[in-house]
Design goal:
Oligomer: single chain
Helix content: under 10%
Shape: globular
Largest sheet: 22 strands, antiparallel, barrel
Distance between the termini: 9 Å
């Protein structure tokens, strides 16, 4: 059956009662141009018994979660018609993105304004990160292989350790169930876009499986503007595959394994005449043993490896990050109480082969950790406490903690409060490259937030206010402390990520209305300047409905101006874009999807001198026997 809510984002957490009309009025006040335009981001109510893993690292009902969480399911991803993971995530409250050109080019995700490297990212429990740039390389992840996305806004270092200073994003591939379910999909769009994908999934009580393959390519558009760069089209091609297998030996023991591989070749403009190309490879593997020893005690033992490789041509540069992770998670459920204890070991390796300018760089490090957690859900009260100790092979011990509390004033009203500390260890490149300083210290954060939420039927309004202060921020500074005469990394920065997020959903006369607006003030505390590429106001509006079997929807995004540099002298203008989409089951097993992005062909930039795609069209067909 065709999904009637294409953007089925389940929003949880931190919200306050107000009339549903408050959100459109607030958006109109903040963005006058928006008041004349209708619709964007679709977001629907959470299903109370849906479980979320990412917030506490164990499966818990969404209603028991205090954290600020959003969930995106496969139907939402397919209906969006999006190609990149960050394009889907950008529809969520508290999220802004940048991209240096079109699909396949480098992108960043800012959760509540925090640096991209301050978001911990996992795929089927496999940690993704770059020990060169810091943070996940988003363009490496193939959206076609992703079945579900969970986003936790706010620090979670007391659960995940280093990196989770702004939040956590976890992606999941499909888990098979039921009779064999094959599918085949094809799509065409302007700018030479072509996609094809196929797969099969299924399962019995003993064995479940899922396999997926995809290939996508586009001729693209010139990634940069101005006469200093090659005016040729900058396209990309990506081939990816994933496999998942689960074996249920008995009621007590289960074994799960996942594999994912993705190859991406994309063009970019680094000079005036050369055909500059990026080559990305992503490999992930996970093996987990789950044991339910009794009704109250269970364990999870998981071993994972993630490998991220990036290289360029014709000017050679290459960096490869390999991450190993070993996790033993214990859970005790005693009535309304949940106790958790985890032992974790992380190993990071970086290899940058020598070029004509610098020598070979090969370094590694490790972290051993003990994490404890306690959760309570009893009557109107919800409590979550976490404490973690990380012993880094380079920096020694580091402790983090978090405490959050929710109180249901009425069945419709809920208020929450949370506080926590976080850190991120500098990358191996930050410390040992020609720009590195071996004595760099971890970046540290302290976060507090308050929120409330009102829900009644299909209507909801939510608000969360937060302040996250970071010290020891690593910036690129003056020469003198490293081998490079160009400059060196140093712990000289302090930043504050402060803001308010308002979200709402309402259904009226068969139309689902959804939206969010972010007021934020991400600043460098030393200079008082706004942090680069983050708008102080950002909003989404949306609507979808069902007409004669057709799902019709619209999305609108509005952003205030931003600055492209730390000095706040290079202005990136504000923008408003409108997208339209529709889908319908045109035959028993065939679904048609059509989408138009940037309907008005708005000319804007997410990063200075980098172009965006203008108006784009996409039509896709998917065959999936029912």
């Amino acid at each position: 059956m065709t999904n009637t809510r294409p953007f089925n984002v389940r929003l949880s957490a931190l919200s306050v009662h107000a009339r549903v009309a408050v959100l459109p009025l607030a958006l109109a006040a903040a963005f006058p141009a928006v008041s004349q335009t209708l619709l964007a981001q679709a977001a629907t109510e959470p299903q109370l018994r849906e479980t979320v893993i990412t917030a506490t690292r164990v499966a818990r009902p969404l209603a028991d979660i205090v954290s600020d969480v959003s969930v995106i399911d496969r139907e939402t991803i397919e209906a969006s018609g999006a190609v990149g993971v960050i394009d889907v995530i950008s529809r969520l409250p508290g999220v802004q993105i940048t991209r240096n050109g079109g699909q396949g080019s480098s992108g960043s995700v800012y959760l509540r304004g925090a640096e991209s490297r301050f978001t911990a990212v996992y795929l089927d429990g496999v940690r993704l990160d770059s020990q060169s740039t810091g943070g996940v390389v988003w363009e490496q992840i193939p959206l076609s292989q992703i079945d579900r996305i969970e986003v936790v806004r706010g620090p979670a270092a007391a659960v995940y350790g280093s990196d989770a200073m702004g939040g956590v994003i976890q992606l999941f591939t499909k888990k098979g169930e039921g009779a064999p379910a094959p599918y085949v999909g094809v799509g065409l769009g302007n700018q030479g876009t072509r996609t094809v994908q196929a797969g099969v999934s299924g399962g019995t009580e003993q064995v479940d499986y899922a396999l997926g393959l995809s290939h996508e390519r586009a001729d693209g558009f010139s990634a940069r503007v101005g006469s200093a760069y090659n005016p040729d089209e900058d396209g990309y091609r990506r081939t990816s595959a994933n496999a998942r297998l689960g074996v249920q030996f008995d009621t007590t023991h289960r074994l799960e394994g996942t594999l994912l591989a993705s190859n991406l070749n994309s063009q970019y403009d680094g000079s005036k005449t050369a055909d500059d190309r990026n080559h990305h490879q992503l490999r992930t593997a996970s093996l987990a043993w789950l044991a339910k020893w009794s009704d109250v005690y269970s364990t999870r033992l998981q071993v994972t490896q993630g490998q991220s490789e990036y290289s360029t041509r014709p000017n050679f540069y290459m960096t490869e990050t390999t991450l190993h992770n070993y996790l033993l998670q214990n859970e005790w459920r005693l009535g309304a109480h949940l106790f958790t204890a985890a032992l974790e070991r992380r190993e990071d390796e970086l290899h940058n082969p020598a070029t004509e300018f610098v020598g070979d760089l090969q370094r590694d490090r490790s972290q051993n950790a003990l994490a404890l957690g306690y959760g309570l859900n009893q009557g109107a009260h919800t409590l979550q406490a976490n404490l973690r100790y990380d012993d880094d092979s380079e920096f020694g011990g580091k402790s983090t903690g978090s405490l959050s509390y929710g109180y249901a004033i009425t069945p419709q009203w809920r208020v929450t409060a949370a506080a926590g500390t976080s850190f991120r260890a500098p990358t191996l490149y930050h410390r040992f490259s020609e720009y590195g300083a071996p004595d760099l210290q971890p970046e540290k954060g302290r976060n507090v937030e308050l929120g409330a939420r009102w829900t009644q039927g299909e209507s909801s309004v939510g608000v969360v206010a937060y302040r996250n202060r970071v010290s020891n921020l690593i910036n690129f500074g003056a020469a003198g402390r490293c081998d490079s005469s160009f400059g060196c990394y140093e712990n000289v920065g302090r930043a504050e990520y402060k803001g308010v997020t308002l979200s709402a959903a309402h259904r009226i006369a068969g139309v689902s209305l959804h939206g969010s607006i972010d007021w934020q003030n991400p600043r460098d505390l030393d200079s008082g300047k706004l942090l680069a590429r983050r708008a102080k106001r950002y909003a989404t509006l949306g609507a979808d409905t069902l007409v004669a079997g057709w799902t019709l929807g619209a999305e609108l995004y509005a952003s205030a101006r931003r600055y492209d540099n730390a000095a706040n002298t290079n202005v990136l203008g504000g923008y408003t874009t409108l997208n339209l989409y529709t889908s319908k089951r045109v035959a028993r097993d065939v679904t048609l999807l059509a989408r138009v992005d940037n309907l008005a062909d708005k000319d804007y930039q997410l990063a200075r001198t980098y172009a965006t795609g203008g108006r784009t069209f996409y039509v896709g067909l998917k065959w999936a026997p029912q």
